[in-house]
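Hello K.,

You asked for the raw outputs rather than the summary table, so here they are, unedited. I folded two proteins back to back in the same session to keep the settings identical. This is the first:
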Amino acid sequence: MSMLDSPVASILTLGCKLNLADSSSLSKELSNVGYHVINTLSEADAYVVNTCSVTHVAAQKSRRLIRSVRRLAPNALVTVTGCYPATAHSEVLDSLGADFVTGTGDKSHSELVSFLQTNRPLRKVTELKDEIFRQTRSFIKAQEGCNDVCAFCIIPRTRGRERSRSEFLVVEDVNNAIANDSKEVVITGTQLGAWGRDITPSRSPDQLIAAILEHTDIPRIRFSSLQPQDITPEMLALWHDPRLVPHFHLALQAGNDATLERMRRRYNTADFRDAVSRIRAVIPEVAITTDVIAGFPGESHEDFDESLAFCEEMSFSRIHAFPYSPRERTSAFKMSDDVSHPVRKDRMQKLLELGKRSNKKFRETSKGQTRSVLWEECRDIQGQSFYRGLSDTYVPVYMQLGTDGEDLQNRITPVALGDLFKDGVLAKPLKGKIGSEGDLQKERVYMHD
């Protein structure tokens, strides 16, 4: 079957980086069975809606997207995967009009691909505008599932128990990403710090990172996300390699010990503070991002004030804050000391305002630094053309196109960071020209305890 005859499948993804990794894997599998795969809400012969249900808002977005696709393409095949089907009532799922519904994991994905292969429609899409399934950064799943069962979290119900993928499979995926011209991989999982615990003999995340460094030539590796107990000396010792970006995502959830205990997290604020200190001692320029829940049941005004102060102390480069969302089949769902919706919203707003101040401060301190940037797209801003990319420290970087019009798309170059601009910073090429990727392979100067 030629590409002109291949039916078009659109994969639409909601939720976390793990879902992005799943969508990338599904794209490859669907291509192998004769589909032309895109990842935009465009005309297609079949759709895969990869859903999320981590909060009630995410579940609502999943339902809305499924219904929208069904209305927009009444004659197309509509399939649903991801976390939402495991949390939705069967009558609600039936009302969405999908042709096939499954959950998460390799078995579910194989069933979805088999359904689309067996029921492959004839090509009806007439114009594609050169669309393909495109990810400048490739998301690689290393692990799935979680054994921790935090009080607020539905994910163990939707993703199951911890299952690690072998180093061989992860390395193979990274090398496939390189073959597809990816310059950065994001290694992800439900509980990434648990990688290797279920392997016999047991393995640890630093061994996975070491394998990727040894057996691949990927220019940039981002490891997301971790918890304080995952930050070991063995892991931090690997960051002498400049391919490991100076960015850690440490999920906080609350900056108050009483709240953390009710959440059934496996650390307290002292543990978190210690992990941050150890990271910054080894990688002074590091960006540390986090997640925080506002208004968890039982969170008093004093608890929240303490949590807010702790977030300010940590000087995060970015804070993802969201209000507590009750999820059925979690222990927090049965807690009686609920925080009212207006209070949750007010606390979330305060966290977001702190996040904006912290982010601005981090971007201001980056002025004058030389950083590597992966250029992702060209944008027209106020009548001028700018390239936009991400620095190794996860800061959006903008650089105005020069008169030579050199193509930077999907390239990594070193730049000098300047003034704040939009949601990021402005940059200039070093010495008035674009540097080579080889210029970036320089040892960082580290400070050790």
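The second followed immediately with the same parameters:
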Amino acid sequence: MIQDPPRTERGPGSALGLHRVLEPAGVLPQAAWRLDADPAIWPDEVRVAVDRLNLDAASYRQLRESTGGSAAAMRGAVLDIVAGRGKMQNPVTGSGGMLTGRVDEAGPASPLGLAAGDRIATLVSLSLTPLALTDGLARWDGQSEQVPCAGHAILFGRSIAAVLPADLPPALALAVLDVCGAPALTERVVRAEVARSGLAGSDLAGSDLDSAGPARQAGPVVAILGAGGKSGSLSAAAARRAGAGTIIGVVPAEAEAAAVRRAGLADQVVIADARDPVALAGAVRSAGGPAAVTVVCVDVPGCEGGTVLATAPGGTVIFFSMATSFSAAALGAEGVAADVTMLIGNGYVPGHAELALDLIRSEPGVRALFEARLTEAG
């Protein structure tokens, strides 16, 4: 356990973490260039002994590509970021990830309901979490988004954390909680679309509503870009529960397509480069689209145009990828006169952790995909 250095009594900190911002002054911790990761806590803070980081997919890809993928280079890149910024925020993607650890100390005024010894996962981004690493990341081989480590992190009064469930392996729970905002928002949007249209996926199940194309069930068509990934697979399962009629899974390669088919997550699985707007839109249409709801869960840039074209007039696009250019999405939609609503998945929906954990427990296909990814990375 870290021992606090001698200090004078501190008054209440900012629940938003403003007192931890070193530069520039007057911004929130996520927008700050540098944070104060001093282990001495304010009365409403919590200090966590960190044992694992989970880098978000866009940041991990960028680090791997920019360093050539060598373990030493990737370790050095992450250590430099954390040492220089007091947090893990990739300066290229602006994103971070999340962490697991054990609560060292909870301040007497902390509203998070955590106690010393609790094993937790944070549900706020590393891009706004004060962090210090002490082990040089010696146990990380650079081959996985999950980074074994030692150090400490600070949670503010407005932070969010979940006690890790006892019935799931910690690595699996971390992988699920890392993306739990995606299925929760997908479920909300699809459920609203079902209510608006007045048809649920179970209505007229199996009927062929479009004799010119693939068989479709009543209810909205939902397209998941990146259906073989963590957020994509959970979002597909959440869409099904919410009443989606036809789920179209879009993946970049046959290996992922086969995995999604085995998992039973989609009615139609298509292989397409999401960066090719015409090819992507054509693939979704050939599978029963355009989609009433399109969920973007890919970790590469340049998918905005095709996503808009694959979505029906009056439909909704949910962007969960940190590689998304929101100006490209907005201006691209304007440029093709597309009447679509575009949502930014912000990672938080009330009850998101519980929903995602329930999906991983109850959907064997989703769990199999997660476990295969963890095995490959391990």
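Residues 4-8, 202-216 have pLDDT under 50 and may be disordered.

Happy to rerun anything if the numbers look odd on your end.

Regards,
P.
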